[in-house]
Amino acid sequence: MRHFDFSPLYRSTVGFDRLFSMLDSANADAPSYPPYNIERTGENAYRITMAVAGFAEKDLSVEAREHVLTVKGEKEAEDEGRDVLYRGIASRAFERRFQIAEYVRVEGALLENGLLHIDLVRELPETMKPRKIEIGSASARQIEAQAH
């Protein structure tokens, strides 16, 4: 993974401390298990896909709270009475957190073929959506004023 140095930006910006600390923390050595993808599935739709092979629905939890999406996986020990010679399939507990933007809500989650799909939708309120402003001319206002 690449490491980016944001320190030159610190001296030329004011009020972006939280943004830079988030970038630095995202840039730090983050856990790599389980692997995941984030994709755009539509203009305002996104999907997070996590590889959670070996985990059942009862072993996983997905929680959205205050702009943080948390995915946890805890599996009960199944090795009792088994003599495992080689362990290549990871089944350790994990917790992965994603920062989600304002006006983004979790639409649902689906476990399919060892992949956990979490669908997200961005819903901007009407007041936040761009709107077209008509441009009038000064001569049209004068004609309307004289007509009254």
From TrEMBL:
CDD domains: ACD_IbpA-B_like. It comes from the Bacteria. InterPro entries: A-crystallin/Hsp20_dom, ACD_IbpA/B, HSP20-like_chaperone. Pfam families: HSP20. Residues 27-138 form the SHSP domain. Keywords: Stress response. Belongs to the small heat shock protein (HSP20) family. This is Hsp20 family protein. It comes from Roseibium aestuarii.
